[in-house]
Amino acid sequence: MDPYLLRKLNTERAARRAVIHLTDLGDGRDRVVREGDPVAGPLGAAVESAFRSGKSAIVAAEDRNFFLNVHLPPARIVVIGAVHISQALAQMAKVAGFDITIIDPRTAFATEERFADVDLVADWPEDVLPARPLDAYTALVAVTHDPKIDDFPLSQALSTGCFYIGALGSRKTHARRVERLKALGHSDSEIATISAPIGLDIGAASPAEIAVAILADIVAHLRRRPLLGAVS
């Protein structure tokens, strides 16, 4: 690979931005395509599909063959609240290939005994997230039921464009949450992106079932997410 392209590729990956190293297998010409860069025609459709799936592949377009080497940032889940749902979700997320972090300032809940081998941070989200910022490849799951803990990370998730934002609570609870987020300057359209009640509607009752519903919702949002910019 050309050293310039290699530097560009590594810069994008270090910044947790999605890129594809696209190579024409006929003449060897290559380039780095960032998510949102315009690529026309059938090749553009293949690029869009690759950004969604994260799978590298050889594709045929315009009577030529191209190799699409896809580099997506590892999708991660940040959970606000070290509750029973979080315990189940942490184990399921690992199986599904997600990195997961649990944040909760309540030290009675955020214990290593309850979250063995999990990235657990017993501190306030407003103290944690500046050093570990959310981004477009982060799913934010808020499950404490406590506005003092949940509202800041929810607001941050809306501002940074997390691919999934979910919040536990009844419709009445969420209506009050909406008003608080509006007071923080968020629009109706932004707030409407929050999955609340959280997770897919599968009739979940137990913490483990709710965790299944949340993880399924996260996967659906990841694979169907709007791409940054527009690939046409």
UniProtKB/TrEMBL annotation:
A UniProt-annotated Pfam family: XdhC_C
InterPro entries on file: MoCofactor_Util/Proc, XdhC_Rossmann_dom
Domain of life: Bacteria
Domain XdhC Rossmann: from-to ranges: 77-218
Protein name, per record: XdhC family protein
Chain segments annotated as coiled-coil in the UniProt record: none
Record Gene3D superfamilies: NAD(P)-binding Rossmann-like Domain (3.40.50.720)
Species annotation: Shinella kummerowiae
